[in-house]
Inverse folding.
């Protein structure tokens, strides 16, 4: 966007407001590059990223958010500024300082944890995961750099074997010098040679304080005097060789430190492109989550962009973020605005009282349009904008003594510039159009200016007190009149934007409220022309009618909602009663069927004595089963109405299959398949002939051997070495670490181990939280707690097993 009136619409203060939520210097660098754009695809993708970040942040605030490690809240405040280190890496041969190497190591570690967290949530938040998808895994780099530089900026003793040896030699040499000088002090304690009995350093050499004038009693080298000249600092002769050796060792130490720093610098320089990619990804993510935090704090929505062929500008409950921030600190509410314009009505003319909020309303529209095109969520309940090529604004007094411009001249000069650059894809904001001149001339001039902007096809917002413009808005198709509310009782503006009618300026009423005498106000009213008084009365009556209409509409809406709620309640009550009635009838039917079945079973048992009787019983049972089904269907039809015709189903049955019969609890086995679709089955002690319709399901074959099922194998439990009862998962992904610890606990439980240790490190606490959640639900765990400092402190967890 080439022209967007940044100063007038306060885009830079808005950038500072969003900057409060940025955590790192990398994110602030991305914030500085944020500006309105005109590429629809880029904007929609960027806003989709913000929407996903808002969803992620909301999920991460839930109490159980990280139970499975899916939404771990990301923080960027501890990421250091590595811009100078990256600049040095681009200079071949340059060597990084220890602090710069430490900062890069911290960045790589933090970036690695952010990357792991987003990869873990990639299925649900693919756009966020895509931000780090192109970056390489930083763990190999981190393994070579981590721990080489300490937090105070010094190179660690174990950075190399040679450095460790040199520092031990230096400590030993210092102890020898200390012992030698203490012996010297004891020797000269009582001979008046010593000024004080202590050892100090001068020129990196250990010395003792000697009284000036007594130095001839001491053989050694003088390395300076105190400020008063009363004390000389002397290196005794017996420690000179020892100090020389110490100096040599320290020089070797510095050379080894320089070698280590060069080696680390070369390693980081080799991985420079990967580190740069991580830096850029972390900067983008920091700004993305800052936008999400801003959206949550200011109740924002993701704006939409209307199609170029159906342009719309819709705002519902929109608020100016800077004003909202100020009023929030003052604990005052902010009154939102709502409006809607489209291709047919794309000019809004706002009138109303002074200090009533006309300028703020226009600034809100302009700033929110810029926010949308900067891929920022906007503070509103709903927001839709055309895609603007430029936002042109003329607000405030343009008077300039140096340029010999009056208020009117400055106003017209700015309007002329806007008319020269306006396009159909422009948003135009004009405050107090036609001001600072005679109203009889300013009104027609303002009308002509508005007509010109309308002819160019731009969306235009203008505020005015001029009658000619109010009449133009009421009589011109495509122009919408709007007014800022004014309370006649309190003589104060309400700051509510009302569409559909112009507002009165209420200058005399506001002057009265501000303290002008009633006599002066009365004389001013007498000097108003009859038409002006009539128009003021007309506008006042019109606004009263609009307020009454609004109240009546609200009453009608409430009555409609009450009727709908009543209707819904009656419908629910009727459905509940019918449901209870059907349940009662169904229970009665079930009871009758159970009684009928019991009686049939008693009749069958009476005729089971002989073969003829058994055959008759089987026939009777089949007949009774059929009669029971027919009776059940007829009963249900009588109670519930006609039931849908069930679709016939084909069940493949072979001899030897185990089947379940309808109404028979014990499984049966098919002995033979007979003609006519009959089956001879055996159920317990009974043999019977049935039809396939009596088969409810074919059961799986019962196991005949004790062999293990297919795809099941047996392995003996693991041996357990009692001297090794810990697992180290530092550097692993959260999901991988969780699986390894879970398997480790199973093995420990099988080996009857009662206490183990899990080493997970510190970092951002991702591994610690994931493992803690696993331990809280694992059936083998009796209790767990952080290890003692000797066992790793908070970087490890001790687990006691059941």
């Amino acid at each position: 966007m080439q022209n967007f009136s940044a100063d007038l619409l306060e885009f830079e203060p808005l950038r500072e407001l969003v900057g409060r939520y940025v955590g790192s210097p990398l994110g602030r660098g991305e914030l500085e590059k944020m500006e309105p754009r005109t590429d629809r695809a880029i904007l929609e993708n960027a806003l989709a990223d913000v929407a996903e970040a808002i969803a992620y942040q909301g999920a991460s605030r839930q109490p159980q958010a990280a139970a499975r490690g899916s939404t771990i809240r990301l923080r960027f405040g501890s990421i250091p500024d590595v811009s100078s280190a990256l600049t040095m890496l681009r200079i071949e041969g340059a060597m990084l300082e220890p602090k710069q190497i430490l900062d890069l190591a911290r960045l790589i570690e933090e970036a690695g944890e952010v990357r792991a967290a987003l990869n873990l949530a990639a299925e649900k938040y693919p756009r966020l995961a895509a931000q780090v998808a192109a970056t390489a895994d930083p763990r190999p780099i981190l393994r070579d750099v981590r721990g080489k530089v300490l937090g105070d900026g010094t190179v660690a003793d174990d950075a190399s074997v040679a450095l460790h040896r040199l520092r031990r030699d230096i400590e030993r040499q210092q102890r020898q010098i200390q012992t030698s000088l203490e012996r010297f002090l004891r020797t000269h304690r009582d001979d008046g040679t010593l000024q004080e009995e202590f050892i100090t350093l001068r020129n990196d050499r250990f010395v003792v304080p000697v009284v000036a004038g007594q130095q001839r009693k001491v053989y050694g080298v003088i390395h300076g005097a105190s400020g008063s000249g009363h004390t000389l600092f002397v290196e005794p002769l017996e420690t000179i060789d020892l100090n020389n050796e110490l100096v040599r060792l320290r020089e070797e130490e510095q050379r080894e430190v320089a070698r280590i720093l060069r080696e680390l610098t070369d390693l980081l320089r080799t991985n420079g492109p990967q580190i740069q990619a991580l830096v850029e990804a972390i900067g983008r993510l920091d700004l993305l989550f800052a936008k999400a935090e801003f959206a949550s704090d200011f109740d924002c929505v993701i704006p939409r962009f209307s199609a170029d062929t159906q342009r719309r500008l819709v705002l519902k409950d929109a608020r100016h973020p800077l004003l909202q921030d100020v009023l929030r600190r003052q604990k005052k509410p902010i009154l939102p605005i709502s409006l809607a314009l489209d291709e047919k009505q794309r000019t809004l003319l706002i009138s109303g009282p002074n200090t009533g909020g006309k300028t703020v309303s226009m600034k809100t529209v302009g700033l929110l349009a810029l926010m949308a095109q900067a891929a920022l969520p906007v503070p509103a309940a709903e927001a839709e904008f055309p895609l603007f090529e430029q936002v042109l604004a003329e607000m405030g007094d343009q008077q300039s003594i140096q340029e010999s411009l009056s208020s009117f001249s400055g106003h017209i000069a700015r309007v002329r510039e806007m008319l020269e650059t306006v396009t159909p894809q422009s948003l135009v904001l004009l405050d107090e159009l036609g001001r600072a001149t005679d109203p009889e001339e300013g009104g027609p001039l303002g009308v002509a200016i508005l007509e010109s902007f309308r002819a160019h096809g731009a969306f235009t917002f203008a505020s005015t007190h001029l009658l000619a413009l109010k009449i133009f808005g009421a009589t011109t198709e495509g122009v919408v009149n709007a007014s800022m509310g004014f309370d006649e009782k309190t003589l104060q503006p309400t700051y509510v934007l009302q569409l559909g009618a112009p507002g009165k300026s209420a200058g005399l009423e506001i002057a009265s409220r501000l303290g002008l005498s009633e006599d002066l106000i009365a004389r001013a009213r007498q000097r108003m022309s009859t038409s002006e008084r009539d128009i003021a009365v007309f506008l006042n009556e019109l606004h009263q009618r609009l307020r009454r209409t609004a109240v009546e509409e609200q009453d009608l809406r409430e009555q409609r909602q009450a009727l709908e709620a009543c209707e819904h309640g009656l419908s629910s009550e009727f459905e509940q009663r019918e449901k209870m009635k059907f349940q009662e009838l169904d229970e009665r039917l079930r009871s009758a069927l159970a009684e009928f079945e019991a009686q049939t079973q008693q009749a069958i048992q009476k005729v089971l004595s002989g073969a003829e009787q058994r055959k008759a019983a089987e026939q009777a049972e089949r007949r009774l089963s059929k009669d029971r089904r027919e009776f059940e269907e007829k009963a249900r039809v009588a109670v519930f109405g006609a039931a849908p015709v069930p679709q016939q189903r084909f069940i493949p049955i072979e001899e030897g299959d185990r089947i379940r019969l309808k109404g028979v609890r014990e499984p049966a086995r098919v002995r033979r398949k007979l003609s006519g679709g009959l089956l001879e089955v055996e159920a317990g002690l009974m043999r019977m002939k049935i039809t396939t319709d009596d088969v409810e399901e074919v059961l799986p074959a019962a196991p005949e051997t004790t062999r293990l099922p297919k795809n099941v194998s047996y392995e003996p439990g693991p041996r357990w070495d009692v001297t090794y009862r810990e697992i180290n998962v530092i550097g692993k992904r959260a999901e991988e670490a969780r699986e390894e610890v879970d398997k480790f606990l199973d093995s420990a439980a099988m080996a009857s181990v009662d206490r183990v240790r899990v080493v997970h490190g510190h970092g951002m606490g991702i591994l610690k939280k994931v493992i803690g959640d696993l331990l809280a639900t694992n059936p083998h765990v009796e209790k767990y707690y952080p290890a003692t400092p000797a066992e790793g402190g908070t970087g490890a967890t001790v687990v006691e097993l059941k």
Q: What stands out?
A: The longest strand covers residues 479-487. The first helix runs from residue 6 to 9. The two ends are 67 Å apart (CA to CA). Residues 316 and 336 are 8 Å apart (CA to CA).
